[in-house]
Design brief:
About 50% of the residues lie in helices and about 5% in strands. By secondary structure, it is mostly helical. It is globular and about 35 Å long. The model has no long low-confidence stretch (mean pLDDT about 95).
Length: about 80
């Protein structure tokens, strides 16, 4: 049995891509990092709680760093909750 981490990140990137294509968000938009995103374990991009991070940087954090914290921040930004 394997954890679904990579697939989950791919699906998160798919949702973000759709939001970008639909004009719902822009790469330059900023996202406030929540306490939950900041506390997320596993692989991280090490964003800090309360920090404002561009969607472009969060995408890099998901793709390059495999950042769980960036995934949670984007899920909260787009959907209101993880």
């Amino acid at each position: 049995k394997l954890p679904p981490a990579s697939l989950t990140k791919m699906m998160t990137l798919y949702v973000i891509s759709n939001a970008l294509n639909n004009g719902q968000v822009q790469l330059a938009d900023t996202v406030r990092i929540s306490e939950k995103a900041w506390k997320t374990g596993g692989s991280r991009m090490f964003v800090k709680e309360g920090q404002m991070v561009s969607i472009e940087d969060l995408l890099k954090g998901i793709i390059v760093d495999s950042g769980n914290d960036a995934c949670v921040a984007m899920a909260e930004h787009l959907g209101g909750t993880e």
